[in-house]
From TrEMBL:
Family: Belongs to the peptidase S51 family.
Highest taxon of source: Bacteria
Name the record gives this protein: Peptidase Lmo0363
Classification via InterPro entries: Class_I_gatase-like, Peptidase_S51
Keywords for this protein: Hydrolase, Protease, Serine protease
Amino acid sequence: MKKLFLSASFEETAGLLHTLEEELNGRRVTFIPTAAATESYDAYVHAGREALEKWGLIVEDLEVSTATPEEVTSKLQQSDLIYVSGGNTFFLLQELRRSGADLLIQSHIQEGKIYIGESAGSIILAPDIAYVKAMDDCAAAPELSDYRGLNAVDFYPVPHVGCFPFVESAAQVIAEYESTLPLVPITNAQVIVVNGEQHRIVEI
């Protein structure tokens, strides 16, 4: 059964993890910071890592843009949870595909491994990520031939609604796609929790 925790700002909502899983102490999480590699601001990556450690999780980094295929496979296989941080969604998708991590993550999700996404890490699970071009620069991923996401959910997360510095870009995404796509907008204080095929929004 799918167990997904899709956030906009993990640092702010990490306290809600108990809504998905009660006991996390001592479990291993593969931490993928790749989406932030093209960003000038990445404090949220460090904050996310610290928030996981406060839950007693053992955090092991996996930078998929530089890891070998063997490293990608073994780290994902050996972990109890997968965490994918925020940043540029298009660069993230490009590197997940190039490394083969996309198919592995899809498989682990289907097998019931807990997946935690933050911003780009949440968006990446949608059927397609083209809808967030107003939020992220697709030029950061010149090798990306199409925008098919990991398709682990049948909706389209829109993070940071009403939250600086994404107030205008999130509103633009909603205005452009709310009539054609099943968008699920969330603020930085909200999380989309997925159990099986059901999803709900919880907030702090």
